[in-house]
Amino acid sequence: MQQTDRLKTFAIATLGCKVNQFESADMIEQLRNAGWKQVSFNEAADLYLVNSCTVTGKSDAESRKLLRRARRANPDATVVATGCYAQVSPEALQALAEVDQVLGNREKVDILRHITLGADQVSSLTEQLEGPSLKLTSFADHTRAFLQIQSGCENGCSYCIVPIARGPNRSVAVTDVEEAVRRLAGEGYREVVLTGIHLGAYQSGLTGLLRRLDATGAVERLRLGSLEPNELSDELLELIAGSSRICPHLHLPLQSGSDTVLHRMRRRYDAALYRQVVEKVAQRLPDAFLAADVIAGFPGETEQEFRETCDLIAALPLADLHVFPYSRRPGTVAAAMPDQLPPAVIKERTTILNRLAAVKLKLFRQRFIGSHLEVLGQRHDPATGLISGLSRNYLEIDCPGTADDINRLRMVRVTALSRNRLVGEPA
C-alpha cells in the first residue's frame, strides 16, 4: 500500500441507490478540494474507491469484481472498499487480497482523513443520531443534484439488510435542507432530487418540507425518491398536483401483489391499499411516471401467489418496474425461512416480471408521442448531433441540439418511439 501523501489521482465506482450516489459525490468533492484529480475507473489511478451496495448477493459480487479490477489496473494503488457491503460484512472484504482498507458508511463523511490514517474503520450506526452531511456543493458530470435529507430505516421488513447497513432513522433539519437547495441552485442545477433510505420517515414532515421548498422557488424542479405506498398522504398528493416545480414522478415499492407474501415480508400495507393508492395517483396525476419495486421468488412464494403479483401489476397504471430476484441476506428474518425457492424458479419469475415491465414502459412512452414536454438537457452526442434530456415525468427524450443545450430547459415535441427511445424535435 502506498503512502497517502503520494496519492494524486483517484477513481470511484458507485453501486446501488441514489443515496450512495449522493455520498459518492460528496467524497469526490472532498478529494477534489484537497487537490486530487479524478480519473475514470478504467484508468490507472493512485487510489480506487468502491462505494458498495449489499441489497443482493449480486451486488456483493459486483463490488468484489470492481475491487479486483482496480487492483489489476494498478497493482501499486490503494484500493478502498466502503459503503453498505463494507458496513455489513467488513471481514469478508478484509479477507480479499485486492483490498487495502475497509471503511464503513459513517466514515464517508471524512473520507480523506481515514484514507490518510490508512486503518480499517467501520463504526456502529446503532447510536448515530445526526442526519446526513449536506456539505456537498456540486455534482461531478451531473445536471441534476441528489440531496440526501434522511438516512436509516426502522421498518424491519423480513428480507431487508438495509437497517443493518444504514442504522436507525435520522433526518436533516428543514432549514439545512432549504439552504442546501439554494446552494445547489446557485451552482446552476435546475433539478434537485430529494433522497433517503426511508424518505417518508423524514422527521420534520416531508409534506411540510416540500411545501416550503416549493414556495421559495429556489430551483426549477424538485423530484422525490422512493416513498412507501402507505405514506403517500392525500395532502402530499394534492401538493404535487398543484405544483409547477414538484415533478409528477413517484416510485412506490410494491414488492409483492399477494397479501400472504406481503405478510411474510412484514410490509405495512396490503394489495388493496396499494391498488387504491396507485389508482388515486393516476387519477390526480394522469401523466405521472409511476414505478414500483417487486421481488421475485420470495421464500415460500407459490405459483398462485406469483400470479397474484403479475395480475395486480398488469391491472395497474404503472410505467415501470424495478425487479429484484430474491437474494438471501444473512442476518435477516427471511434468510431463516423455510421453502427457499430454487435459483431456476427465481430466475424464471424474474424474467416474466421484466417482460411485463418492458411492456408497461413501452405503453407509457407511446402515450406521449405528439405531446409537448419540457426537457432538461443532460448529455450531448457529437456523433449524432442529439441531446438526451429528461422530462418532468421522467421520460428520457433524444432531440437535435448542441452541447450548449446541456442543463437547459427546452420544450420538445415528441415525434416517435425508436428502438425503445423517445425522439423529438425542438418545439
Automatic annotation (TrEMBL):
Which residues does the UniProt record annotate as the domain MTTase N-terminal? 8-120
Q: What InterPro entries does its record include?
A: Elp3/MiaA/NifB-like_rSAM (IPR006638), Methylthiotransferase (IPR005839), Methylthiotransferase_CS (IPR020612), Methylthiotransferase_N (IPR013848), Methylthiotransferase_N_sf (IPR038135), MiaB-like_bact (IPR006467), rSAM (IPR007197), rSAM_horseshoe (IPR023404)
- Named cofactor requirement(s): [4Fe-4S] cluster
The Radical SAM core domain covers 139-365
Keywords in alphabetical order, please.
Answer: 4Fe-4S, Iron, Iron-sulfur, Metal-binding, S-adenosyl-L-methionine, Transferase
Protein's recorded name = MiaB family protein, possibly involved in tRNA or rRNA modification
